[in-house]
Design a protein that fits this description.
The chain is of the alpha/beta class. It is built from nine helices and eight strands. It is 45% helix and 15% strand. The longest helix has 21 residues. Pfam families: Glyco_trans_1_4. This is Glycosyl transferase family 1. GO terms for molecular function: glycosyltransferase activity.
């Protein structure tokens, strides 16, 4: 049974990630909301066609007392998710599903998630049920959502709980393995690549192999002794 994340005091906005992250829009959206913003990041990768550029997050954000940027260990990342009032995944438009790891990790931690609705990121969140989408590169839209969640904490927790249930039921390891297997069978024309152990299809069994192996070892031992 999945255990609910420990209840801890919630404080501020948390964000993380490196690929196509639009942290400046988040900073602008939260200005004046009197809340702390914590970003777990160092470098941000921007993808444009065949080119990729890398920038230091600190060089793209204003120096403000309410904004902290740092790299976190796995345990620190887990605790940061749990401690956040809301997790925001601001993304630049892309055809890739950027941000999916952070979205699912935040859901698993039982926190409400707000993400940019970009072409490649449209099917993980069910808007208003397991999380929220906002327009990309639109600080006003993001700000409205942040204010809405601040003013409606019961709704925020209800959506967070639903998001956690979704992750536990759809994105657990066993379900993932089953889905991969079903897909491979489909690719293979509906035939399981190996429904029975290989030795069951041959004229030998594991026991006979072990027996013959022992016999070979004994023979080899006698040959070495005769030299």
């Amino acid at each position: 049974m999945q255990q609910s994340p420990a209840r801890v005091p919630r404080r501020g906005i948390f964000s993380a990630g490196s690929t196509m992250r639009d942290f400046p829009t988040l900073i602008e959206a939260a200005e004046g909301l009197s809340t702390q913003i914590r970003i777990a990041a160092s470098l941000v990768v921007h993808l444009g066609g065949l080119r990729a550029t890398v920038t230091d997050v600190r060089e793209t954000l204003p120096a403000r007392a309410d904004v902290s940027v740092s790299q976190l260990t796995a345990l620190e990342l887990r605790d940061a998710y749990r401690a956040a009032e809301v997790v925001v995944v601001p993304l630049y438009p892309s055809d890739m599903d950027n941000g999916v790891n952070v979205i699912l990790e935040a859901m698993a931690a039982g926190r409400p998630v707000v993400a940019s609705r970009i072409p490649g990121q449209v099917d993980v969140i069910t808007h208003g049920k397991t999380g929220y989408y906002v327009d990309p590169e639109n600080p006003e839209d993001l700000r409205r959502m942040l204010v809405h969640l601040r003013d409606n904490p019961e709704e925020a927790e209800r959506v967070a709980d639903e998001g956690r249930r979704y992750v536990a039921s759809v994105h657990d390891l066993e379900t993932f393995a089953d889905n991969v297997r079903a897909r491979l069978i489909e690719i293979n024309g509906g035939q399981s690549s190996r429904a029975t152990p290989w030795w069951a299809e041959a004229s030998v069994s594991p026991d006979s192999l072990r027996t013959s192996g022992c016999r070979r070892s004994q023979t080899a031992g006698r040959l070495r002794a005769s030299r």
